[in-house]
Write a structure and sequence with these properties.
This protein is 50% helix and 7% strand. The strands form 2 sheets. Strands 1-2-3 form a 3-stranded antiparallel β-sheet. A 3-stranded antiparallel β-sheet has the order 4-5-6. The longest helix has 26 residues. The radius of gyration is 24 Å and the shape is globular. The protein starts with a strand and ends in a 28-residue tail after the last helix. Bound molecules: acetyl coenzyme *A (ACO). Acetyl coenzyme *A binds next to loops.
Amino acid sequence: MSKKNKTAKLTIGTTGQELELPILSGTQGPDAIDVTSLYKEAGVFTYDPGFMSTASCDSGITYIDGDKGILRYRGYDIAELAKGSTFVEVCYLLLNGKLPNKKEFNEFNRTITEHTLVHEQIHFMYRGFPRRAHPMAILSGAFASLSAFYHDSLDINDPAQRDLSAFRMIAKVPTLAAMAYKYSIGQPAVYPRNDLSFSENFLHMMFAVPAEEYKVDPVLAKAMDQIFILHADHEQNASTSTVRLAGSSQANPFTCISAGIASLWGPAHGGANEAVINMLEEIGDVKNIPEFIKRAQDKNDPFRLMGFGHRVYKNYDPRAAVLKDTCSKVLKALGQINDPLLKIAKELEKIALNDDYFVKRKLYPNVDFYSGIIYKAMGIPTSMYTPLFALARTVGWVAQWREMMEDPAQRIGRPRQLYVGEKPRKYTPLSKRK
Ligand code: ACO
């Protein structure tokens, strides 16, 4: 919980009114001036499009220090979790605020595993989509439709039902995502297998076919698990804020997560990893890198180095640091260590990290820089990159939604506006209008 221990003085220029506003301190990070009473006391709003300086809630889930390149879930460093934990354990951590003991882990793992099947009717629903449908369109629709299938977990005021819907969403999202892929290539959906781990099972549902046995490569399963861990939560980004705002009206959790998926689909949010691959292919050869670096610095050229820069990180994105290493391991396991795209990516990174333009603006590789190369090497098509992001982020959205629902101070989210439209004017009937 935040603490009030300081105040800020505000003088309203138009009226001369002086106000003392509480300053809230969290456990880490910048303080926040509490302006909740501002309108009531002074009749003015704050103005902050894009929420550049606005904290929208209290949260104890994820901490980011963008200047230092720090990302922590529930106090644990992301690199440590990526190295030593599993995605399912991270799900438990994000939802419950602590690491599970063995018994708690086994129980949780069993619960998630046992909820991976989706209602058989959902297979028929998928068949209504065109084969060319983007998997994000299917995923967003499928999530909203879960509320039509699971009536027994829609009561948001019942903690047991909130838990059940959380488990269902985390467990079913890999099945729904893999089904969307299989549908797009005309192959039968592959049912989940309870003897496999979360990530092994996902790879199995993506790549197995009924005609032959599919063996999951442990290096790829570990890489997949790490990618899921790295994408599991990122505090109040656009899609998470969308989930919270949708949930603030007491909407059911399945539709709230569906709204989050829609927000993530936007190219400014979840779509950049695909753009990195396109860029590396366009560069084509290490010898062309200087030309592209020059273009990225040219204000008259819209080209940007995809996978570089971040709104919050003004340092190396800690997720990219983990993925750089994972990328080498995956390509080695697949015998693709001489992959030309990886060669271009590594050289591009080296040049950019030493170039004045990028250094001055603190433009470092972000999480998308290496994830696309890993996906490509694994044989995952580009249209599935954003669904994979959604798959991993579902637990973050669910944890944030649950945290909001458990907050006694929770109320409907309702931003205000600075009206810049017409002043009052008289209506003229159509017959009298020129
Ligand atoms: N290549 C070249 N120049 C860049 C880049 C880039 N990738 N990113 C930022 N800049 C420059 C801008 O031109 C600007 O220069 P100026 O100060 O001379 O005008 C300066 O750096 C600051 O850039 P902004 O756009 O103001 O930074 P902002 O925080 O708004 O944008 C963003 C962050 C959108 C991520 C941006 O860096 C970008 O477009 N990167 C490429 C796309 C990308 O990789 N997106 C994925 C982000 S990670 C994620 O969403 C999971």
